[in-house]
Write a structure and sequence with these properties.
Layout (H helix, E strand, L loop, with lengths): L10 H16 L9 H13 L5 H23 L9 H32 L7 H13 L5 H27 L7
Helix pairs in contact: 1-2, 1-6, 2-3, 3-4, 3-6, 4-5, 4-6, 5-6
Length: 176
């Protein structure tokens, strides 16, 4: 089985293409890769990387960009003893830690939302497909849109929590 990754196009489309490509290798002939069966097969293939199934695939798809967001925020909030005060460096360290918490919470929240959001609650195939469709339905889409949203949610949580906590702990500027 091969996993093809396209690096061209919009980042949200890349996520869906990765899942579709992973699923296309395991989907029986005559089943479209972007169909419900194709998406579930792709998620199961991606989840198999960590020894899980389709629900683990949702977590992996969300965790990968969350790790990238964490690394980016680490660079944005980089500490420098020569350039910044001790209070500013402490705020930056706290912001970086909060980014990690946001990434983990966002990934867990996305997986939990998929399990709970559908018309069939739970982690069965019906629960996952209906959960992804319900999440995607928020923006007028279906399962594929649900996958994109659950992949983007951990990134948003990591960045928002990390930067928000940094701003909260940042030393107040003194005006004359």
């Amino acid at each position: 089985m091969k996993l093809f990754i396209w690096l061209l196009g919009h980042p949200n489309e890349r996520t869906v293409r990765i899942i579709a490509a992973a699923g296309a290798a395991a989907v029986p002939a005559g089943v479209a890769a972007m169909s419900g069966a194709g998406i579930m097969s792709g998620l199961a293939t991606v989840g198999g990387v960590v020894g899980g199934g389709a629900l683990a695939g949702v977590g992996v798809i969300g965790a990968a960009p969350a790790v990238a967001a964490k690394l980016a925020m680490d660079q944005v909030l980089k500490e420098d003893k020569e350039l910044y005060s001790d209070e500013e460096n402490q705020a930056r360290a706290i912001g970086k830690a909060a980014t990690t918490v946001g990434a983990v919470a966002g990934t867990a929240g996305a997986v939990g939302a998929v399990a709970a959001a559908g018309s069939v609650a739970g982690v069965s195939a019906a629960g996952i497909t209906s959960g992804l469709a319900a999440i995607g339905g928020v923006v007028g889409g279906g399962m594929a849109a649900g996958v994109v949203i659950t992949a983007a949610a951990p990134v948003a949580a990591a960045a928002a929590l990390g930067y928000g906590i940094y701003i909260l702990f940042q030393p107040k500027k003194k005006y004359r």
